[in-house]
# Entry
Amino acid sequence: MRIGYSKSDKLTNNLSLGVRKTVLNNRGTISLSANDLLSGQIERNTVTYKNVYSKNYNDSNLRTFIISFGYKFGSDKIKEHRSRNTGIEDELGRTQKK
# Structure
């Protein structure tokens, strides 16, 4: 890949993976994720401009591992919707009797 005077010798790649498991009666969640498992974020490029020649190698080592835990607080039971009369039903009934 060429950008201006810079030529990249290798394309970078990234392999990420994540898993999630519910625990504690479906109220808790444990997650594990990993980024750049194969150390593919390596950049090699050369720059040639007039009488300047530069060759660069950059290994960012962006490999990360994350473990997280989440928990749902509060009640898991939702109350049913109550049916209420607001008075609009009386007005609708009165106007539609014609």
Q: What stands out?
A: Strands lie at 2-3, 6-8, 17-23, 28-35, 42-49, 52-59, 64-71. The CA atoms of residues 79 and 94 lie 32 Å apart.
